[in-house]
Amino acid sequence: MTSPTIGVLALQGDVREHLEALTAAGASAVTVRRPEELAAVDGLVLPGGESTTMGKLLRIFDLLDPLRERLAAGMPAYGSCAGMILLASNILDTTPDAVHLNGLDITVRRNAFGRQVDSFETDLDVVRVGGEPMRAVFIRAPWVERVGDGVEVLATVPEGPAAGRVVAVRQGDVLATSFHPEVTGDRRVHALFADMVRERRTSSTPA
User: Fold this and answer.
1) What CATH number is given for 5-204 in this structure?
2) Choice among 81, 100, 145, 190 that is catalytic
3) Quick check: pTM over 0.90?
4) Of 8-22, 111-125, 144-158, where does mean pLDDT reach its minimum?
5) Binding-site residues from annotation for L-glutamine
6) CA distances from 119 to 112, 136, 141, 168 (A)
7) Those residues with Cβ within 8 angstroms of residue 132's Cβ, 6 or more apart along the chain or in another chain
């Protein structure tokens, strides 16, 4: 089987780092800025950045409706930090016109851990990635305040003031993390997502 083609939404954030991580995971990684580029990929990564700005850029680049349509049709997606916020069905502490894509039945709180100066790192046990705990980098990160039916919790903060807060989830073919695995060199989250895209493509291919 050929490598899946996975796009990285290239409007803001760690685009290059996600491309490198996906390539290391065996995917054919490409940037996505136009509707026709979105239409050509098997899955999509929504990187970190500033979620309200990214929502505005989705409208400017005529990507908002096509992205919603592809998600509704079952396209696999992975969102890190701001990407998690965009994929949520409900967002707290944001503007009334904030974009949400309804890819995950979750409620997220923006900047839940505090400002940029409150960014931190910790080790997380992440379900489905296997191996040793994962070093997780949180930068003005959200957390998940509510998970709906069918949403699997993959990781929670182990200790400190935010102990127990949900920071990684999966629902069907949609994955999201509050943290930034693309900046640590640990490719396990991207490998998990690449496998999800492969499985989805296989199940969608006529026998």
Assistant:
1) 3.40.50.880
2) 81
3) yes
4) 111-125
5) 49-51, 110, 139-140
6) 11, 11, 8, 17
7) none
Retrieve residue 39's tokens.
């239409």
Residues 17, 18, 100, 180: which is the catalytic one?
Answer: 180
Annotated catalytic, 132?
no
Catalytic hit among 18, 100, 182, 190: 182
C-alpha angle with apex 86: 192 to 105, nearest 5 degrees?
75
Average pLDDT over residues 86-97: 90
- CA atoms of 125 and 127, how far apart (whole Å): 7
Question: Does residue 180 carry a catalytic annotation?
Answer: yes
Q: Residue 191: which of 150, 131, 143 has the closest Cα?
A: 131
Q: Cα dihedral sign for 174, 177, 180, 185?
A: negative
Residue ranges per structural domain of the chain: 5-204
Nearest-angstrom CA–CA distance, 126 and 70: 27
Neighbours of 103 (CB within 10 A): 30
Known catalytic residue at 182: yes
Separation of alpha carbons 78 and 168, rounded Å? 11
The closest alpha carbon to 87, from 72, 7, 192, 117, belongs to 72
Over range 149-158, report the average pLDDT.
96
